[in-house]
Design brief:
Blueprint: H1 2-12, H2 16-26, H3 32-41, H4 47-53, H5 79-83, E1 89-92, H6 93-100, E2 106-107, H7 108-121, E3 126-131, E4 144-145, H8 148-155, E5 159-162, E6 164-167, E7 170-173, H9 176-187, E8 190-192, H10 198-203, H11 205-214, E9 215-216, E10 219-220, E11 225-226, H12 239-242, H13 284-307
Parallel strand pairs: 1-3, 1-8, 2-4, 3-5, 8-9
Antiparallel strand pairs: 6-7, 10-11
Helix pairs in contact: 1-2, 2-3, 6-7
């Protein structure tokens, strides 16, 4: 748990010393939001922000590249995508199309719905991976609907075909899931799929962490692409924070106590009590103990005075 949190905040750009110090103060069970709050309170800044404030001669090199010279645009990436605050999106085209087609038809319209949803949110880097043999005319055992959408997305540099060929009449297909996970990992983006990629998780421990924390599942409701509002569960980040590089912490709202003035928890109550702002928040039992201790102490002092010469 410690290593996964350390890797997560290192990817956000924070220094290892600051992260370790916060985890020691808050404990290993601390939530990611609490750790991020503490890092901000300490004044720790991501390395990217510090490099902007203090320009140096060193150049930042994109993860996965070995050269410091600017190369060609990778997979048709836009220049605006690098400066965007939203994460790159990598879509498992086969999974999305089959889900929209009720696992019976390869529905290309489902891919278009997913691409349009991320476009409306402002994502500039969107890639869809589909096996090359889907270009072939549909057959009875593998029907395809709206195949022209694939050609349109390919012209827009959004769709990428994974290679396949025929050897002695048999089709040899490359594993498209490996392409999807590898590209998403190198771009530090999000995988859109309902597949868990368990075989790839066992292949690489770094991919295992990435798939567990960056996999966005979805549903189709009446031709509407709908990802969940809490991709990592009830206690995880919201969908907007999950899809952005710089998560925004929500303001803490105190929930009023449902018992109101009848609450007997005192200072142990986790809810908000507006009537106790200027009062000592003691429980009823503690108040009774405090009241009973005072007369007992007075009685003992009187006995001592009478006994003393």
């Amino acid at each position: 748990v410690h290593q996964s949190k350390l890797d997560f905040f290192c990817k956000l750009g924070y220094g290892k010393q600051d992260i370790c110090k916060v985890l020691e103060n808050l404990g290993q069970e601390a939530l990611e939001d609490d750790v991020l709050k503490e890092l901000i309170r300490m004044g720790s800044k991501p390395q990217a922000l510090e490099s902007q404030a203090q320009p140096s001669q060193l150049k930042l090199v994109a993860r996965g590249s070995c050269s410091t010279t600017p190369g060609l645009k990778w997979l048709g990436e836009d220049e605006s995508g690098a400066s965007s605050s939203l994460r790159p999106i990598v879509i498992d085209g086969s999974n999305v199309a089959m889900s929209h087609g009720n696992k019976e038809v390869f529905s290309c319209w489902g891919i278009q719905l997913a691409v349009d949803w991320f476009r409306e949110r402002g994502h500039t880097y969107i890639k869809v991976f589909v096996p090359l043999w889907r270009k072939e005319p549909p057959r009875q055992d593998s029907p395809i609907a709206d195949q022209h959408i694939l050609e349109e997305l390919e012209k827009q540099s959004i769709l990428v075909y994974t290679p396949s060929r025929k050897v002695k009449g048999k089709r040899v297909v490359c594993y498209d899931d490996r392409y999807i996970v590898k590209v998403a990992y190198e771009k530090d983006g999000v995988i859109v799929s309902n597949d868990h990629y368990r075989d790839l998780q066992n292949e690489n421990p770094e991919w295992k962490w990435f798939i567990e924390h960056r996999l966005l599942m979805y549903s189709f409701v009446s031709n509407r692409f709908m990802p969940p509002d809490d991709p990592l569960g009830r206690h995880g980040p919201t969908l907007s924070n999950f899809l952005s590089k710089k998560p925004v912490l929500p303001e803490k709202k105190w929930q009023p106590c449902p018992y109101g003035k009848k609450c007997t928890y005192g200072n142990k109550c986790k809810f908000y009590h507006p009537e106790r702002l200027h009062q000592a928040q003691l429980s009823v039992a503690d108040e009774l103990r405090a009241k009973t201790k005072v007369p007992l102490a007075l009685g003992k002092e009187e006995e001592r005075c009478q006994c003393s010469p």
